[in-house]
Structures are given as structure tokens and as C-alpha cells.
Design brief:
By secondary structure, this protein is of the alpha+beta class. The protein has 2 domains: 248 residues, 2-Layer Sandwich (BirA Bifunctional Protein, domain 2), CATH 3.30.930; 96 residues, Anticodon-binding domain (Rossmann fold, 3-Layer(aba) Sandwich), CATH 3.40.50.800. The protein contains 16 helices and 16 strands. An 8-stranded mixed β-sheet has the order 1-5-6-11-10-9-7-8, sandwiched between helices. The protein has a 5-stranded mixed β-sheet with strand order 13-12-14-15-16, with helices on both faces. The longest helix is centred in the first third of the chain and has 22 residues.
Length: 454
């Protein structure tokens, strides 16, 4: 029998491997998490519960009521509100035609939809300012980094209808107390004023004049911003060009504020001082959206990087007018929940035993009669507010006890034929090993009392 040439054998083997891999891959398709998104797994939920419950409590204390808006809006809402020349609208929005060929955009930020709701539902007739808070997913197609996702979740607050600097201070106070209540340490509040339509144009002329001779040395994004939104050149984070050097040498907005903006900013600083909130003034601080005026602020953790800001916002007195309403002042902030959770973990904040998802009791049964009683007992424990798990009936006693240990249960309640007849359960403290018989109807109250009941 004539042997095939080696190269033919190798080629045949390669084709065979290719077809086998195609068959295997088609029969066992494995879907993966989309890039820039994350699964919030059960072990992370206690951190999320801490952040969201703290946010809700702080919003309640400051009398900011809950509002929810749709996950998608007409594309024009973000084009007019956020700004057509921004990176968000040009590069990052998820925009698509619906079945009637109307362009829709997944929520790219939280403020514009709330302002749309304020207009659409006649909230200007309510006592002003209207104070609202929300939790919502935000969608932006950007390069994923630590603490930055293409879908992230946000806690935000808005106070619409009052332009007094005391409202700015109130919103900042809410944000500061919120991060403080989370147990985060080493935070820095940074504030600035970026003026208004009266004084900002003159500053922008001066800023462009300072940058113009050096445009070839800054990054391509800053060269584009020079024409479309020069203020955002101060927000550039790139270090591979001369951007940071020119930001440091740029003229300061504080020198160009009109009397109204200067007075507003001075009063805000006075209010923050009276509230005992430490702050720094940073003349290069701007926000990435076009609608901001006067006050802008950020709360930053000690670490730097993409997740360096845990909360940021400012005043947007012209936004509602851009959306077709009367000139209406507004101020608010947004805070990414992912960044907050990241910092809570990074600083090893004590999230509290009640949030860890500890199983209070595992009910163990031996035999069919005991299994029926165990099902009822587990239900009674849950109705008493305890976190109870029914071990799988039919498994060995050792197997069920191992399951209770793996769950980190505080107690086990073991029911066998003897316990069924006596109407009791064998209650065991898993930490100390102490155990005793308890009547079934008293099991919940004994566990609620804790170890003193054993």
C-alpha cells in the first residue's frame, strides 16, 4: 500500500480538525457577556444593597421623591440636551430606528429625560424646586475600563425650578452625606464655576487664543473640541500629548466671571463652609455635557484613574429652555453605582452582617414524615422574617449538615421520627455546637433571640 506524502497527510488532518471544530462549536454554542457589561452576582448583591439603600435613605431625608423614566427616548432629546458636538452624541450613544423609523436612543444620561418629564407633566405648576431622585441604567459605547462600563447604573438627583446657590449647596450636601454614610474615606469635593452665556463667551475667546499656537501639540480630540466645544479641552485626560501642560497654563474662568456668576459662586462657598463640608476650587474642572452653567462639582476618592470620580454634577439653567420650555434653573448630580461599589470594596467598608445574606437556619429532615413537617417549619421561619433554607430531603444527615455548613448557616433544625412524634426539632448553634430540643412553634422566636435562646 502506497503511503500518502507527509504534506498531504498534514493538510488532510488540518481540514479534518477544522470541520470537527465547526461541528462541535455549532452544537455547543456558548454565549458570553457583551463587552463592557457585567453580571452582578449574588456575592456582590450585599454591596449593591448597601449603596442603593443608603442612597434611598439620603434622598428621603432631603425630600427628593423617586422618578423613573423610559430606558429609551427620542434621539433628539439627547442631541438637543447633551449637545450634538459632544463625544457622547457623536461616538457613544446607542441610537437605532424603531419599526416606524423614528430614531430612538438608549438612555445616555439621566438629567435630560427628567427634564423632559418635568416639561411634559407640567411640573412647573408644583412648588419649586421640584426635588427628584432616580436609579437607572446608562448606555454609552466607550472603551471599558475599571469602574467604567458600556452599561452602568446610576443614582441621580435633580432639583428643578430654583436658581439660588443654596439649592446648589443642598444638592452637594446630599451627595457628600451620601458618600460619607457609605463609609468612604479620603474623599475630596472639587468645585468650580464655568460661568453662564453672559460671561463665558469672552472666556472662550481667551482660551482659544491661548491654545491656538499649540494646536499641533495637543491630542486630536482637543483639536476637534477647539472648534466645537473649547471648554472641554480642560477636561482632557490624555497624557501622551501636551494637553495636561496646556491645561495647567490655561487662563482661569474665575477671572472672567460676570458679577452674577461671581456672587453665586461666592455664596455657594459660604454655604459649604457653614455646612462643614471641605472643598477645593479647581479652575480646570468642567463637566462633559454641554448643558452645564455656573456651578460644577465632583467628589473624588484617593485613587486616580477612570474611576476617579464617584459623583459629579452641577447647574444646568439653560437645559429646559433648549428642550422647548421656559427658562428654568436646575441643578443635580449623577453617581455611578459600579464606581461606588468598587470603592466600598477597595476601602474594605463594613457592609453590615444583615446585608451579607447570612442564612439564619437550615431545616434538616430524616424520613418522609419528617420532610413534610420540615417543609412547613421552613415556611413558618420565613414568615417570621428569618432567612431559612430547606435542606434536600432524602440526602443523608451528614450530607444535609455539610450543606448547612457550606451556606454558613447560624442554626440547623433537625427533624426525625422522634421529633415528629414529640412536635419538636433539634436546634443546633453552628458556631458553638450547643444544641437542644425546642417545640416547633417556638423555633422562630428562639432563633430570633440569638444564642441566648440555646
Amino acid at each position: 500500500m502506497r503511503r500518502l506524502p507527509l504534506r498531504c497527510t498534514y493538510r488532510t488532518l488540518c481540514w479534518l480538525c477544522y470541520f470537527v471544530s465547526k461541528i462541535v462549536s455549532e452544537d455547543s454554542v456558548q454565549f458570553r457577556l457583551p463587552r463592557g457589561t457585567q453580571d452582578i452576582l449574588p456575592e456582590d448583591q450585599p454591596y449593591w444593597q448597601l449603596v442603593t439603600s443608603t442612597a434611598q435613605e439620603m434622598a428621603r431625608r432631603f425630600a427628593y421623591d423617586r422618578i423613573d423614566t423610559p430606558v429609551f427616548e427620542q434621539a433628539g432629546l439627547f442631541e438637543r440636551g447633551v449637545g450634538e458636538g459632544t463625544d457622547i452624541v457623536e461616538k457613544e450613544t446607542y441610537t437605532f430606528p424603531d419599526r416606524s423609523n423614528e430614531m430612538m436612543t438608549l438612555r445616555a444620561e439621566g438629567t435630560a429625560p427628567v427634564c423632559r418629564a418635568y416639561l411634559e407633566h407640567g411640573m412647573s405648576n408644583m412648588p419649586q424646586p421640584v426635588r427628584m431622585h432616580y436609579f437607572c441604567p446608562i448606555f454609552r459605547y466607550e472603551r471599558p475600563q475599571a469602574g467604567r462600563f458600556r452599561q452602568h447604573n446610576q443614582f441621580g438627583v435633580e432639583a428643578i425650578g430654583d436658581g439660588d446657590p443654596s439649592v446648589d449647596a443642598e444638592v452637594i450636601d446630599l451627595g457628600w452625606r451620601f458618600t460619607e454614610a457609605l463609609g468612604l474615606k479620603g474623599l475630596t469635593l472639587v468645585i468650580n464655576s464655568i460661568g453662564d452665556p453672559e460671561c463665558r463667551p469672552k472666556y472662550l475667546e481667551t482660551l482659544k487664543a491661548a491654545y491656538k499656537p499649540y494646536l499641533e501639540k495637543v491630542c486630536p480630540d482637543c483639536r476637534m473640541r477647539f472648534e466645537r466645544n473649547p471648554l472641554r479641552m480642560l477636561d482632557c485626560k490624555r497624557t501622551d500629548f501636551a494637553c495636561q501642560e496646556h491645561i495647567a497654563a490655561a487662563p482661569q474662568m474665575a477671572d472672567y466671571l460676570c458679577d452674577g456668576c461671581a456672587d453665586h459662586f461666592a455664596k455657594l462657598q459660604g454655604y459649604l463652609t457653614s455646612l462643614g463640608i471641605p472643598f477645593q476650587v479647581n479652575s480646570s474642572l468642567v463637566r462633559g455635557l454641554d448643558y452645564y452653567t455656573r456651578t460644577v462639582f465632583e467628589i473624588q476618592p484617593p485613587e486616580e484613574g477612570a474611576q476617579s470620580t464617584v459623583l459629579g454634577g452641577g447647574r444646568y439653567d439653560g437645559l429646559i429652555e433648549q428642550l422647548g420650555g421656559r427658562s428654568t434653573p436646575g441643578v443635580g448630580f449623577g453617581s455611578g453605582l459600579e464606581r461606588l461599589v468598587l470603592n466600598v470594596k477597595r476601602q474594605s467598608v463594613d457592609i453590615g452582617e444583615n446585608l451579607v445574606g447570612v442564612v439564619d437556619a437550615v431545616v434538616v429532615s430524616m424520613g418522609d414524615a419528617a420532610a413534610s413537617v420540615a417543609v412547613k417549619l421552613a415556611s413558618q421561619l420565613r414568615n417570621s422574617g428569618l432567612r431559612a433554607v430547606l435542606a434536600q430531603p432524602g440526602r443523608s444527615l451528614r450530607g444535609q449538615m455539610r450543606h448547612a455548613t457550606a451556606l454558613g448557616a447560624r442554626y440547623t433544625l433537625v427533624i426525625g421520627d422522634t421529633e415528629v412524634e414529640a412536635g419538636t426539632a433539634q436546634l443546633k448553634d453552628m458556631a458553638t455546637g450547643d444544641q437542644r430540643q425546642v417545640p416547633l412553634e417556638e423555633a422562630a422566636s428562639v432563633i430570633c433571640k440569638g444564642s441566648d435562646g440555646i
